[in-house]
Amino acid sequence: MPVSYAPGFTVGGAGDTAVTIADVSIAEGNAGTSVLTFTVTRGDATGAFTVDYASADGTATAGSDYAAVAGTIAFTAGGALTQTVSVTINGDVATEANESFTLGLSNLVNATGSAAIADATATGTITNDDISVIAIHDIQGAGHVSTFAGQVVTTTGIVTAVDTNGFYIQSADADGNDATSEAILIFTSTAPTVTIGDRINVTGTVTVTEFIPGGASSGNLSTTEIVSPVISILSSNNALPTAIILGAGGRTAPTEIIDNDNFGTFDPASDGIDFYESLEGMLVTVPTPLVVAPTTSFGELYTVADGGAGATGLSARGTIVTKGSVGDGLSVTNTGPGSDYNPERIQIDADSFTPGGIPLVNAGTTLNDVTGIMSYAFGSYEVLATSAVTVAAPSILTGEVTSLSAGADTLTIASYNVLNLDPNDSDGDTDVADGRFNSIALQIKDALGSPDIIALQEMQDNSGSANDGTVSASITLQMLVDAIALAGGPTYSFIDNSFITNNTNGGEPGGNIRVAYLYDASRVSLVAGSVSTTPDAAADFAGSRQPLVATFEFNDENVTLINNHFSSKGGSTGLFGAIQPSINGSAAERLI
């Protein structure tokens, strides 16, 4: 007799031969058709029966996703335990969710024996195998943080630079929107296996991450990168995307405003911080860079494009001058409205892929065009050079020499920061071996003309940064005095700062930097009892440099000097940091 079913129910009774149908899945494919096979199984082969089957739509639709089927299966006594039903699946390239339909059994008719449907419905799942490629400019977006942060994405691009633990890719075709970057960093954590010019798909478990150099507490901006990549190389030896010119004939940076709306509006045309973000990771070329400061101790160069054409604040010596806003007594350092911190200034740096590194040059040097990757680190956007950084024209600057000279009725006084000078070459720096005592001595003699009195800043104690309890700087001062005399200058007397105590003056721990004096006793005399510090030093100068007061007699007249070294900007935020406008951390301390 026939046995029917209602979808979703199991039918049959005790002692019946169970008839079941199993779930199955198949990858969709991109074109043509494939076959999804259902298997119908009976528990034993003692009887003979027929059973009908028919497909029914779920999220998959008959006709477009699969071909509907219906029919009858016959099992014979002593025959096979299984029969199959084949369904044709249509391939496509649409990115979509997995889809499914069902195949149901019904109307089982026993000829001999007693069989019954135990599992009447099976699900056929069509798994999506199409990848949605998201363009890099969509991942980057018009802003500082990607809207895809934390999501799995797939993108494609051409490799433009390969680092030790990642590489950069850039779209071959731009979207024409200057607000969105066409490039992105792929962070591999190990040495990449790609080559410049490879066109790749980044697929699989790929997550967009906003990486903050130095960590979240650093105050730095984040950079968008893709981590945990699975990479497919589609082709090699492709031409690289054309580098964006950062200057005449290309895109020019704003010249005065870094940010004027606290990130309220993404405006690369007017805000320097947005301008460079819109180029993050991209190949750029700085044409004819003019160097505006000497190579830093970190091997970085600060430049302006086009030999300085269009830049604001250039001095006659080729340096660039900042202008603070006014109204608070701190116009030089205030970053408020009306200030000009020269966002057109472009930092050039080296990475592992930079041939030859960064040359040691002075302000006023002109470089040949520099091409590289627009990156960001530690509060500053920078171009990581992919081409050699070479000099087109050296600086013609020479060291300035004072026009002042001492005379019978002329007293000369100078101020000189010796930058943590100390005699201990085993404390992590080598001032003696590097010849710093001698070079400072020559500058004092030749450039400053051997002043009658020199106010010194950042003299370290006799053991330098060795944190051994030493406070006196008598050896440091005497070595400098001896170096000046050896260079042909006068034999100075010195005044150490006896008012400081160990590790209470800021600066490098253990170094006990202080202000001090050198004076030419053949020209001036120190007034007895005049050396002092401020009477309220404990309150106003706690944790900072103690001022040093001294009175000297010259031509029967007394001259009183106060040698100050104000607190550094260690508490300030970067000009291109996450806090806008940037904070001058020492402003309050400087208002005495």
TrEMBL record:
Keywords: Calcium, Repeat, Signal. Transmembrane segments: none annotated. SMART domains: Calx_beta (SM00237). This is Calx-beta domain-containing protein. One of its GO terms (cellular component) is membrane. GO terms for biological process: cell communication. SUPFAM superfamilies: CalX-like (SSF141072), DNase I-like (SSF56219). Gene3D superfamilies: 2.60.40.2030, Endonuclease/exonuclease/phosphatase. Residues 17-106 form the Calx-beta domain. InterPro entries: CalX-like_sf, Calx_beta, Endo/exonu/phosph_ase_sf.
